[in-house]
Write a structure and sequence with these properties.
Rossmann fold; binds ligand LXAUTJHC; alpha/beta; 6PGL; 233 residues; 8 helices; seven-stranded parallel β-sheet
């Protein structure tokens, strides 16, 4: 069964960033109205910076929002590779400065990502899934979250019946070791966004839809949650 893909295409990146920021804020606002709190999981990398800055300006009750990450490079937050640092520098500001942030990196186990999995997974579970909104990115190699082609734990991460909340990942294209939500947790969200930019990524997504074996295909081959695809050239 394939996911329902809802496509949102924009003339340029700023227009996309503005609309995605408003749409995510609206989902969080709805969640606060319905349940008194909201949870948001975001991706890192280079694509989300502008959207984070605009999301931070949205006027919702951020004190009731907890933000976490979809995946993280196993580096301390002073590294320019840190996704937590990206969130700290671009999202936890302005209106959003009162949001809570739950990192995936655990300094107590800074030399051993696998030793951190139980604690980090328990902290994510304590949020009470489903997430209200989760935003995926996609790398030029077809990875999403830290589901890397050739990753040492890729099969376990993508197991639709897997019970783990987070898993470690090492891969040639990943740089340092990673920690990532598993596929069942990525799909455990009320709204799932995929934010991609550039013709190359659009073409790669089309190849994955047509059956090419990229990790992103696992998000497309599921019927649990529709995928809201936001794209700009
Ligand atoms: O390493 C990562 O890469 C992907 C995509 O990043 P981008 O720089 O191509 O936008 C990102 O979604 C993921 O969270 C990150 O850890």
């Amino acid at each position: 069964m394939n996911a329902k893909l809802v496509r949102h295409e924009f003339a340029d990146k700023p227009t996309l960033a503005d609309k995605l920021a408003r749409d995510v804020a609206s989902k969080l606002d709805d969640a606060i109205a319905a349940r008194g709190k909201a949870t948001l999981a975001v991706s890192g990398g280079s694509t989300p910076k502008m959207m984070f800055a605009l999301l931070a300006e949205q006027e919702i009750d951020w004190s009731k929002v907890t933000i976490t990450l979809v995946d993280e490079r196993w580096v301390d937050t002073d590294s320019d590779r840190s996704n937590a640092r990206l969130v700290g520098e671009h999202l936890l500001h302005h209106e959003a400065h009162t949001a809570a942030f739950l990192p995936l990196f655990d300094r107590a186990h800074k030399d051993d990502v696998d030793a951190a999995l139980a604690d980090v997974g328990a902290r994510i579970d304590a949020l009470g899934l489903p997430f209200d909104a989760l935003i995926l990115g996609m790398g030029p190699d077809g990875h999403t979250a830290s589901f890397f082609p050739g990753g040492d734990n890729l099969a376990a991460a993508l197991d639709p019946n897997g019970k783990a909340t987070v898993i470690s990942m090492r891969a040639g294209g990943a740089g340092e070791p990673r920690i990532t939500l598993t596929l069942p947790k990525v799909l455990d969200t009320r709204t799932l966004y995929l934010h991609i930019e550039g013709q190359d990524k659009k073409d790669l997504l089309a190849q994955a839809e047509a059956g090419a074996d990229f990790p992103i295909a696992a998000v497309l081959k599921q019927s649990k949650v529709p995928v809201e695809v936001y794209w700009a050239p």
